[in-house]
Amino acid sequence: MHHSLLLALNDVSPQNLSIFDPASPPAEAIHQLSMLVLAITGGIFLVVEGILIYSLVRFRSPHNPRNGEPPQVYGSQPIEIAWTAAPALIVFVLALVIVRTEWEVRGDPEKLQPELKESKPLRVTAIGHQWWWEYVYESFGDEKLDFLTANELHVPASNRQVPSERRPVYLTLKSADVNHSFWVPRLAGKTDLIPGRTNTMWFETSQTGIFFGQCAEYCGTQHANMLLRVSVDPPEQFEKWLDNERKNAFESDDAAIRKGKQVFLAQSCVNCHRVSGTSARGKVGPDLTHLMGRATLAGGTIDNDRKGENLRRWIEDPQTIKPGCLMPAFGLSASDLDGVVRYLSSLE
Amino acid sequence: MSVAEQPRVETPPWTATLNEWAATVDHKKIGLLYIGMSVVFLVVAGVEALLMRWQLIVPRNTFLSPQIFNQMFTMHGTTMVFFVGMPILIGIGNFAVPLQIGARDMAFPRLNALGFWVTLFGGLLVYFSFLTGGAPDFGWFAYAPLTEKTFARGPAADLWALGLIVSGIGTVTAAVNFVATILGMRAPGMSLWKIPFFSWTILWTSVQILLALPPLTAALIMVVFDRQLGAHFFDAQTGGSSYLWQHMFWFFGHPEVYILILPGFGMIAEIVPVFSRKVLFGYEFMAAATMAIVFISMGVWAHHMFCVGMNRTLDLYFAGASLLVSIPTGIKMFNWLATMYGGRIWLASPMLFACGFLSMFLIGGLTGIMLAAAPFDFQLSDSYFVVGHFHWVLIGGTLFATFAGLHYWYPKATGRMLSERIARWQFFLLFVGFIVTFGPMHIAGMLGMPRRIYTYDANRGWDIWNQLATVGGLIQAPSYLLFVYNIIASLWKGRPAGDNPWDAWTLEWATTSPPPSYNFEEIPTVHSRRPLWDLRHPDDPDWQYE
């Protein structure tokens, strides 16, 4: 069974996706609102459920027509007005808080917080594909960037106390095919990626580490494995990562790797995948230029173990690991498969 | 020579019985046909739900393939909304409304029969897709462009769209019929403000169907055009808009929620007074609240779309409008409680289900407030929290109310009482199973679990909540089977009901159980909302107070 196989292919350390553990301003604002809403609805719940249970206990009696009927009360206008006005007042207060939170979350942060002018923002376009994420790095501060990567979004940690050390992240969201939704609960609420539309969202966090999430709008067969992974790196580490990503793919002198590269370029891999600096220019599948810089493969479904074992299984039989995914098995010979795995494993 | 005459046995051949039901234009028989069809589809959709729950019981389970899982949630949702929820309520309305308002039948009996048969045919058309290589797999709200030829290649999407167009015709005919019947065929003396409350809600449900269903039909026809005639309404690649589909669908889809809950409100407003032995508190306010809900709920549809990136003004408008719905809904809740307060509460099975409704629908309404708070919805939308929420409304609300109504009117329809013992077991299994299934889903959603995923990783902390949900499903399942057993077995075993087993006050209880095909020998004249109360208490009749 590939049930156990998949477990073996995965890192099992616990992942936190709770909306109650926010780490970025939009998620924090929503968290505050949610606490208020939970308190109000919790209060209403206790009162109404209490009256119901009290009435049931107090007024329950077995039916006996001979006992006659209880006094008939047809209604009361003052009471009706009271219990129309009270909820209306609650709704009004709630509406005011919602307006404030909506501005905090969906307002343009650069307009609302003038001090952000001093910050160094990262701008990335995220494009949803069936069932993986394409990231086009547009700019970092005043510096234009021009590279793509896939599935793992790297962003710098921000120092939210010092304006010049703030590193907000602005995402432009697009879709290449069907609707998707970008949802990393601890960073922000979700925003959809809709074909023919351009959406935006932002987040900023001082916590380093990996933030998890996944596509939240049903997008077809492998919706469940369209996983999100945002790596928040310390600033120096992020810039190192950036420097590496901007380079063309690593060219090895190793004869076996060069032979593998020939196989890769001769096969139909290149119809879908791109490796910068080579003739592989496919746009349908994830960019592989720095594949070994990623922690996972197959859109986050399996770990990248760096020994090439999971990569080999994936190339050999993608339909077992991610049934219904758009990558077919090509039936490569054992030596060709070796070569391709060896080549891809060299793409640091 | 004389031959002893054999006594004739008056058993009609089965073909005659079949013919009688297939060709009937009697509103009571048609009502029962609707209910029977819905119960069958309920069992089918229940099996689909259990298959999904079994798949999700452990992380990375391989019980169902993703393709099958996606078909299951699409068919479960489609079936429950279009072939269980609406037809069972229309069926109960069909049975009860003409009796309640003192009419001999619906205004258009033959149209009524047509409505039932095309609804059933639409359901069969959608299910026929299983025989063509797979059911639709794009979810019940079928977001474009997943329904376009590029992404849905087989005929399943066509059958789905055609099935819903066809059954939609049935739904619209039923609504037209209800409006005509209630406006035109009330017993002498029954002014519009004296209609029994269930009939009042059916009237407004019908108005809402007439407003909401045609946009869906239009959108479905556009899907068929896209797929069959090469139109590009919803295909962004060629200049169409998938966003347009969302607006058109939810313009139907949100009012649909109220189409599914208003008749439930009506049944609760019949049952709570009868079993509390008190008149409904604040009828006029309840009636006005019903109209307010219909009116407001026509303008809240895009709260299903807070995450599509609308502008802030639209977000805030739809959040505010959605919150407004809670006011008339609250009025209803308070009036039911005020009706119970000071009464003599008789906890027979209909009231038991009604109390299940009151306690659970409240929670569904409150989680609805959370979802209406737009920024909170950015987190909750499309997560398992939403799955928990709408099941809380549709099972805790619609289904509990429907079971209350079915237990209430079963004696009238068949002349037999249902087994109270089985009904109680059914109630407790459903109540517990329901909470254990859908409660944990709220938590899983707040821990980041999106809906419609066929599998998940073990390290996300979702497994325990999914296991509980599956266990809850297994507790619920026998409850439905008990109900099916009860309604069949009681036809023979149930004790005779008599005309008015619940000491109720509306006109349907004035005729025999089951009523003759013409309903009433003489159409009664009414003076108040509770004609049978007036009859029992000539010294203190209702019309003095109305």
Distance between the first and last residues' Cα of chain B: 73 Å
Unreliable stretches covering 5 or more consecutive residues of chain A: none
Largest interface by Cβ-Cβ < 8 Å: A-B, 101 and 98 residues
The coarse silhouette of chain B is globular
Distance between the termini of chain A: 32 Å
Key phrases:
heterodimer; A: 348 residues; alpha+beta; Immunoglobulin-like; 2 domains; 5-stranded mixed β-sheet; 3-stranded mixed β-sheet; 10 helices; 12 strands; 37% helix; 19% strand; B: 546 residues; mainly alpha; Cytochrome C Oxidase, Chain A; 15 helices
Model description:
The complex is a heterodimer of chains A (348) and B (546). Chain A has 348 residues and is an alpha+beta fold. In chain A, 37% of the residues lie in helices and 19% in strands. Chain A folds into 2 domains: 13-52 and 76-246, Immunoglobulin-like (Sandwich); 255-345, Cupredoxins -  blue copper proteins (Immunoglobulin-like, Sandwich), CATH 2.60.40. Chain A is elongated, with a radius of gyration of 27 Å. The mean pLDDT of chain A is 94. Chain B is an all-alpha fold. In chain B, 66% of the residues lie in helices and 0% in strands. Chain B has helices spanning 14-22, 27-55, 66-100, 109-128, 156-184, 197-229, 242-276, 283-297, 312-340, 349-372, 374-380, 384-414, 420-446, 463-493, 531-536. In chain B, helix 4 packs antiparallel against helix 5 (156-184), helix 7 (242-276) runs antiparallel to helix 8 (283-297) and helix 7 runs antiparallel to helix 10. The chains are: A alpha+beta (348), B mainly alpha (546). At the A-B interface, helix 1, helix 2, helix 3 and strand 9 of A face helix 3, helix 7, helix 8, helix 9 and helix 10 of B.
